[in-house]
Amino acid sequence: MRALKLLLGIASVSLLTACSGAASGPAGGGELGAAPGKDEALTLTVYSKFTSREYDVVTKGLEKIKTRFPNIQIKHEGNQDDDKLTQSIRGGNPPDVAISFFTDNLGAWCSTGSFLDLKPYIDRDQLDLNVIPEAVRSYTEFEGKRCAMPMLADVYGFYYNKDMFAAAGLSAPPKTTSELLEMSKRLTQFNPDGSIKVAGFLPSMPHYSNQAQIWAPNFDAHWLGADGRSNLAGSPEWKAMFEFQKQLIDSYGGPQKVEQFKSGLGDQYSADHAFHRGKIAMMFDGEYRTAFLADQAPEVNYGTAPPPVLDSKPDRYGGAFTTGTIIAIPKGAKNPGASWELVKHMSTDTDTLVELGNGLKNVPSTETALKDPRLEVSEQFREFLTMFSSGKLLPNPTTPIGDAHLKAVNDFAERWQAGNEPNLEEGLRKVDAQINDELAQKSGGK
């Protein structure tokens, strides 16, 4: 579960829409799959994208199902992306359970029937979903259809270098975008030739976790209107977001200087990440960055806080963007009743969620696990738990076009910051038209 998911295009969605229509019932045939008997021997195949150390952590969590069903064997196949998953469903040979980082594709999965409707199982087992925060519940269903459950959540907050703050005479992180702009100016350092040596806050988008979807909640900018259509051009919040981005770019001397600086920065998930190396003083990132810093740059003295918000939206402070890992039963799963038991286990079992949270440094997605004293919480990580419980989380909307709307806005942001979109409102109108055209094409295809 990494921010890399936010950079991917819609290749998975094109495959998803090629699937046949929605399944008629929980197992594709209208019947509810029964839970396996405790003595029943069977193997459940699980696809996920996890690899290396994280694969081992998740496998351990999956195998804890044996405490209830000792004869179930788990075959965990890691490094399986969404394209492979969709191809297996289309080919009639899906895994029993699918774990995905890509919540942005959920609308397409639900609307095509690629994932089974879980509501009948939830109703049968009288599962209380109120233990899951509302924002997390919203990104795991589509148009009232629950075809996935949350396994873990990501919350995107604000990181700042305390030593750099002290050297600049700053004592606390910014709470508003105007404070962020002024602090960025104070923290930025230039080389003798005028090039950027250290950036206070790098506004390049998309880069690292500077994604439109991560910035949007800080401005209270919403993707779709009440009519289900895109109206970015008519939104003061979206305009304020891009105007703020331009102010930041201008404070560095223009897009060329920013691009030159960005080109020399390390990879997002390497030890050469710019924040690790003291090249940027402030940034947005997920809670998982705390684990990267502990492993790759333990010498960095840093703090975390909620992201700064638009000055006119002070009530938004304390909230954040959220997304997360989802777990589901693919259409055509051979043992849907047993699959549901594993899905339920991985999404609601407190012991398992606490262990996964500790091992992966992600936020557990139930209030019970969140408050469990066994959850390992550093000072920096605690801020993300507080944001998660704030009631101010904003996820992406689930749509039948997957992440096409996200890609359209991030592409616009890249053109805008480079100076290739001279008129903000006109450019946003074009983005609205692009998104609405795609929505219209899918609206009759369910």
UniProtKB/TrEMBL annotation:
Residues 1-29 form the signal peptide. It is found in: Cell envelope. Coiled coil: none annotated. The keyword Manganese does not apply. Its main location: other. Pfam families: SBP_bac_8 (PF13416). Keywords: Signal, Transport. InterPro entries: Bact_solute-bd_prot1, SBP. The keyword Nucleotidyltransferase does not apply. GO terms for cellular component: cell envelope. Part of a binding-protein-dependent transport system for a sugar. Belongs to the bacterial solute-binding protein 1 family. PANTHER family: ARABINOSE-BINDING PROTEIN-RELATED (PTHR43649), BINDING PROTEIN COMPONENT OF ABC SUGAR TRANSPORTER-RELATED (PTHR43649:SF28). This is Probable sugar-binding periplasmic protein.
